[in-house]
């Protein structure tokens, strides 16, 4: 009787879900292949559209799909990862709703865990800023914008009105730039059509970028063109600058400028989960898992890693691929095909 092979996928983002879909298709109706997937959320989230949720352009249900709906022949666990023992081939998970702990064994492991928001140990910024990682984050930003509009429309204090109508986004990657674009449009259109008493001259939009141009993933030409477009739309793009402090009504920049604002959104970086960075294997400087050309850990041929948690370099440039949804999708195809070849020998 053929031996049963257990495939365990950690992560329900772009990487994990696309690996799941591909290997289910490749091992369709194969009784000796058992697939399991673990995710802290019971839905797949199309994260690139979170800025559109924050502006109210689309509904959260438009960018979420129940993971169980995608599990054609896989078992799903809604749980967080507590620990991983790569030598013993065991992953300990903690069930979300009641904290029950369970150990899952595997023959093949796919690590596709995402990253956490990096506040660079700045507690003030962490306390006084919004982030844009989850559906709940996007809804909170949208609620904040509406609250600011309503408050500004009901005050005659011009300075206070300007503070309410000042929105600052720190971080010039895709998340930060798209969030600023959506907020800028929502606020300006709302003031123009529904809150005329606020006055468009009292709106201030600030995008803080640590580099010379925004969207560094796209290179200087496209990044600078995107910056020009935002400036034309009324956004104050502040380059070569970092936010170093924040309070309830201000954001402090390292160039000495203090921006009076009631809404600060932090999209300035990510950090690898300690569960990943503490694994006993090779890591990059940021804690990402080092993988070879087949996207396997160099020490463990049965373990693949992709997405935010993996250090994957472009062979042409030697630079690491940025942690984007598009790259995760491409990597998932590589992982799924290589895993299939390992198991079947084809």
TrEMBL record:
Q: Does the keyword NAD apply?
A: yes
Protein EC: 1.6.5.9
Q: Which GO terms describe its molecular function?
A: NADH dehydrogenase (quinone) (non-electrogenic) activity
Catalytic activity annotation? a quinone + NADH + H(+) = a quinol + NAD(+)
Flavoprotein as UniProt keyword? yes
Q: Which SUPFAM superfamilies does the UniProt record give?
A: FAD/NAD(P)-binding domain (SSF51905)
**Which superkingdom?**
Archaea
Keywords recorded for this protein, A-Z: FAD, Flavoprotein, NAD, Oxidoreductase
Protein family (similarity comment): Belongs to the NADH dehydrogenase family.
This chain's protein is named: NADH:ubiquinone reductase (non-electrogenic)
Q: Which organism is it from?
A: Marine Group I thaumarchaeote
